[in-house]
Amino acid sequence: MSVWEDVVGQESAVAAFTAAAQAARQAAQQREAHAAGLAPEGARDGGAGSAAAAAAGLAMTHAWLVTGPPGSGRSNAARAFAAALQCTGPVPGCGQCKPCRDVMAGSHPDVVRLATEKLIITMEEVKTLIGEAQRRPWTGRWRVILVEDADRMAERTTNVLLKSIEEPPPQTVWLLCTPSADDVLPTIRSRCRLVTLRIPPADAVAELLVRRDGADPELAARAARASQSHIGLARHLATDADAWDRRRRLLLAPVSLRSVGDAVLAAASLVEAAESEAKEATAERDAREKAELTRALGLESDGKIPAALRAQIRQLEEDQKRRSKRALTDAIDRALIDLLAIYRDVLMVQVGGDGELINTDLSDLVHQIAQDSTPRQTLARVDHIETARKRLVSNGNPLLVLEDMAISLRPQA
After folding, report:
1. Is the pLDDT of residue 52 over 70?
2. Conformational region of residue 73, where left means phi above 0, alpha means psi within -120 to 50, and beta covers everything else
3. Three-state DSSP class for 176?
4. Cα–Cα distance measured from residue 139 to residue 372, given in angstroms and rounded to the nearest whole number
5. CA–CA dist 21, 86 (Å, integer)
6. CA 142/CA 185 separation, integer angstroms
7. Widest distance between CA atoms in the chain
8. Is 54 a residue whose pLDDT tops 70?
9. How far is CA 130 from CA 137, 142, 231, 308, in A?
10. pLDDT tens-digit readout, 10-29
11. Where are the strands (E) in 51-118, listed by range?
12. Rounded Cα distance, 381 and 210, in Å
């Protein structure tokens, strides 16, 4: 099984990455031959005399920008490319050799991955990455720096990164992942090769859920369609027995909001549900991390913490607090994506579209909302939901953001 098995519906991106990995392998082999004094005369001077060098110049570059809509699998594609670069098997990305297995497991020493669980990537984290980028590979042919949430860097943080991306060591490769190329500065974008992923077909997502997660085929197909091919959301629906009930309660809310009071209560209920989901997702990990740290510091789990060690405990608690906030934001965003899907169906009914509903199990609700509103009102509601998502990412207060959104979703008299 190759490293590309979980990169579904992205044939053109996989082809580009595979070609680049093959060219990178040829360039590395030529570099090694040159170091050993075995390179052909035309290649020994570092010129473009060899076909391999020409191919590498066309297909491989030191910085990549991997973009695609949420749930398209950007991070999986970038990690698979990192594995293909380190691969020692017969074909780059074979999935069977030790380097491939190590990269996919997150244990390869030459693949440095940053996937922030906070709302932003800090300056300190970026400076650490820059230091890692300057190191020579330990065991592989390349030093790969993978940033999964490059859109979460402030402008001044991104500027610090610019020089390292512009002039990296010869064996360093940067992989930046963002939803859109516009999410990074033009100076960064101009120095990267762009690979854009698309929304994968629903049947491809369903097949992945069946193969990778053991989901029931019928449930997987339903989840893939309900999530609009968002792989993460589809997995959530296909593997969490309570997810469908929570989703249904959320989507029933728009027809029950008759007053400002109803909207405020609905917003509070959504925040409470998201907080519960976020706590469930992080509580076990938080407890494990704290137990490991206290054990490493030689402390009793319920004993008094010496003043000299309190800073380390406090730092862990602050990191966990930021991670919890990110988990809450992500949980709310998943709910808002579901809500957008219902209004997509409503609009299709209102304009007489002949496509299939995303929410086939809520057809009655869709037609009721469509009958009680106009396409203009539906588009306005979609805009309110998208505005709420942007405010949440911009660190808006979740309750206030959702109250404002819920009030805007009320059926008009």
Report:
1. no
2. left
3. strand
4. 64
5. 9
6. 26
7. 82
8. no
9. 14, 15, 31, 30
10. 999 999 999 999 998 888 77
11. 63-67, 111-114
12. 35
Residue 412 dihedral angles phi and psi, to the nearest 5°: -85, 145
The residue assigned the tokens 């809520």 is: 362
Q: What angle do CA 237, 344, 328 make, to 5 degrees?
A: 45
CB within 8 Å of 218: residues ≥ 6 apart:
none
Length of the chain: 413
Report, as an integer, the average pLDDT of 332-350: 89
Instruction: Supply 163's token pair.
Output: 């020089």
Between 353 and 102, the more confident residue is 102
CA distance 24 to 61: 9
Give me the mean pLDDT over the 100-110 stretch.
Answer: 93
Among positive and negative, which fits the CA dihedral 89, 55, 134, 158? negative
Give per-residue pLDDT as tens, 210-246.
998 899 999 999 899 888 888 888 888 898 878 888 7
Classify each residue of 327-352 as buried b or exposed e, where b means 16 or more C-beta atoms within 10 Å of its C-beta: bbbbbbbbbbbbbbbbbbbbbbbbee
CB count within 10 Å of CB 5 equals 15
Distance, C-alpha 333 to centroid of its chain: 13
Q: What pLDDT score was predicted for residue 117?
A: 65
Looking only at the bridges linking them, the beta strands covering 193-196 and 111-114 are unpaired
How far is residue 239's CA from residue 401's CA, in Å, rounded to a whole number? 29
Instruction: Record the tokens describing residue 19, joined without a space.
Output: 């070609």
Asked if 29 contacts 52 with a C-beta cutoff of 8 angstroms, the reply is yes
In this structure, are strands 172-178 and 63-67 parallel, antiparallel, or unpaired? parallel
Percent of the chain with pLDDT over 70: 91
The angle, 0 to 180 degrees and rounded to 10, between the axes of the packed helices 398-409 and 310-350 is 10
Is residue 201 within 8 Å of residue 70, measured between CB atoms?
no
Q: Report which residue type is found at 351.
A: V
